[in-house]
Amino acid sequence: MVRIARIVEVIKPAAHGLFGAQIVKLAFPNKKFEVGAYAKHITDYELTVELLTALIGRQIGLPIPEPVIAISLDGSQTWFASVDIKAPNLSQKLNITNGNIQNTQGNALLLQELANWQQIDQSIGFDEWIANDDRNTENILHDGKTFYLIDHNRAMRATFQPKDPISKNDLLNIKLLFHTDDISKQRMKNNIIRMHQEIHASLPKEIAQSITDEIPQLNSPAMINMVKFLTERLLYLTDLTNAKIQTKQVSI
Predict the structure, then answer these.
(1) Which conformational region is residue 19 in: left (phi greater than 0), alpha (psi within -120 to 50 degrees), or beta?
(2) 79, 81, 116, 121: which one has the fewest Cβ atoms less than 10 Å from its Cβ?
(3) pTM
């Protein structure tokens, strides 16, 4: 389930993002062609978070680029890589000044497109499940047709507890800018709760097992704790969603 590749060329630093991400070329075993990717050298904990969350997200149908374990040019380091899907991030498409999204017609139209995206409710629920409060405009890609989710290494921070709500869910905030009536909010809440209820409790363990089968050195206490966190958090998500999206009693 996890592919391992070798970095054969570091092209240049990525224009956006933290953690020193680089645009690279990857070579996979037994493949004659090279693949473009974004790669970053992060801690083992963050690498484990990135792999686990990306593979879980892809398993439940979210548009997340393929995660790859990348071996550095000199063979001494393990990097996290994400296959390049050739799409800019939202910060490159929005008019942003000093970190603030400007009140322009173009910005409003793009944010409304995101708010109406058919997978936004599922993505809101995913960020809440993995405790990711870092869904900013640089880690949402847009190719003109759909949106893609990247960069999850700040999810499941070590001090976070399964029953804690995340401090902010930017996808939820964006949707609520354009869907303000109780019927729309109730429909969104129902979609998110249904999505959480359809996740099998064994999924985190199964994905973790697939990772450690390929990369035994990642079979660590951190991986075990992440699986435990995600499994336990499923029990609290309905209450967290009801508290975060408050509506009057409506039927739809």
Answers:
(1) left
(2) 116
(3) 0.94
